[in-house]
Structures are given as structure tokens and as C-alpha cells.
């Protein structure tokens, strides 16, 4: 049932020089900050257009007031807990299952055109499988999901986050626990200026309205 499904997304406090640093090399820190904010708004709008619950985990821990002033008071906001990205994902999923959700998928905030169909596919997969993962072209993953009964926290252990080996090593961890996650279509994060040019090209893409409107205004996309 959709009411038992939760989408978790990770966001950062919008501070110049601390978000989308690779993108900033191509468009400048000011534009990268603005784009990051629009990425987040597009992701949140996409999830809000669905029946799924939305849980937003933010960083740093003390930025909750700033996040609420930016995104409003109607979100379920939680501070990210843990040292590594793996710790934070593990804890967010564990908290979500402890809150009573039966299925949860976790996505990042740099997927402004991610279509809801992909998340729907993930939840459908979790009706018959305990895990699902969505690979990125850069060797990482853009989505990972579990059922509450099949959640394996150790999947996130011993992964060199931010490298090209993340997806393969995560798959190795799954194999070590005798689990074969359902693999979703490849989707790319928006990390560079070149990635921006791909927005809106794929007919399966979501609208990314905030992001594309800004890019058109600034002449970064046509």
C-alpha cells in the first residue's frame, strides 16, 4: 500500500562554496548554489506529487531552522546522523523503518528531472524483492531501497564513497549477504556543466521546472 512507502532524500544547507562544488567549476559558485536550491525544489515537488510519504534528512545538524525558512514548515525534517555517508544512509533508513514504514527508497537531491515512474518501479520491485538499487553512469548509485523486513544495515559498510567503485562494492556487499537487489534503469546525477545540457532531453525525464526555468533565464540551456 502506498501509505506504507516512504521516500527519503538527503539535502544540505544551501551555502555558497559548500554545495555542488564540481558544478561550480563550470558555472561559478553563485549559479551552483542557485541550481542546487532548484534541484532540491524539483525533487521535493516530484515526490509531493505522489502518494508516498516524504522524509527529508538535512546536513549540517544545526541547520534545521535555516532549512525550514527555505523550504517551509510542512516537511518532515530530520538531521542526518553519522560520520560517513554510509552511516547517514543506514541511520535514515533504520529510523524510517522504526517509524512504521514497510518500504523505503533513498535518493539524493541532485536529480531534478528524476521521473516518479522510476520510484514507482522501485516500490513495485520491493513488493517481491527485499532490495532495489539504481546505478549512476559514474559508478555510484542514485537510489537504494529496502523492505523493513529485508533491511541490511551492513550493506553500507566499507564503501569508499565518492569513488567510481561505489556501485560495484555495494553489489558485492549484497552478494555477501545472499541478496540480489532489483536493478533499476541507469540515471545520472547533475554534477557538472555538461550534465546540465542533458536536462529535458530524455523523453522519460520529469519536468525539472524550477531548474530549467533558471537555466533558460541565465542562458545556460536552450
UniProtKB/TrEMBL annotation:
GO MF term set: transferase activity
Annotated InterPro entries: Nucleotide-diphossugar_trans, Trfase_1_rSAM/seldom-assoc
SUPFAM superfamilies attached to this UniProt entry: Nucleotide-diphospho-sugar transferases (SSF53448)
Claim: Glycoprotein is one of the keywords in the record: no
Signal peptide boundaries: none
Highest taxon in the source lineage: Bacteria
Keywords: Transferase
Gene3D superfamilies: Spore Coat Polysaccharide Biosynthesis Protein SpsA, Chain A
Descriptive protein name: TIGR04282 family arsenosugar biosynthesis glycosyltransferase
Amino acid at each position: 500500500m502506498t501509505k506504507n512507502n516512504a521516500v527519503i532524500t538527503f539535502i544540505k544547507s544551501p551555502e555558497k562554496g559548500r554545495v555542488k562544488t564540481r558544478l561550480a567549476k563550470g558555472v561559478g559558485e553563485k549559479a551552483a548554489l542557485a541550481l542546487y536550491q532548484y534541484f532540491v525544489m524539483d525533487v521535493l515537488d516530484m515526490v509531493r506529487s505522489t502518494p508516498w510519504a516524504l522524509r527529508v534528512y538535512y546536513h549540517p545538524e544545526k541547520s534545521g531552522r535555516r532549512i525550514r525558512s527555505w523550504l517551509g514548515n510542512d516537511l518532515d525534517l530530520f538531521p542526518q546522523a553519522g560520520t560517513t555517508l554510509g552511516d547517514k544512509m543506514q541511520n535514515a533508513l533504520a529510523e524510517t523503518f522504526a517509524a512504521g514504514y514497510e518500504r523505503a527508497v533513498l535518493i539524493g537531491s541532485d536529480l531534478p528531472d528524476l521521473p516518479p515512474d522510476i520510484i514507482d518501479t522501485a516500490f513495485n520491485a520491493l513488493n517481491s524483492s527485499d532490495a532495489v538499487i539504481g546505478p549512476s553512469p559514474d559508478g555510484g548509485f542514485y537510489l537504494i531501497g529496502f523492505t523493513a523486513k529485508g533491511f541490511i544495515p551492513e550493506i553500507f559498510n566499507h564503501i569508499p564513497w565518492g569513488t567510481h567503485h561505489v556501485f560495484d562494492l555495494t553489489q558485492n556487499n549484497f552478494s555477501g549477504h545472499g541478496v540480489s537487489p532489483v536493478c533499476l534503469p541507469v540515471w545520472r546525477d547533475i554534477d557538472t556543466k555538461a550534465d546540465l545540457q542533458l536536462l529535458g532531453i530524455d523523453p522519460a525525464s520529469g519536468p525539472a521546472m524550477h531548474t530549467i526555468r533558471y537555466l533558460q533565464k541565465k542562458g545556460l540551456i536552450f
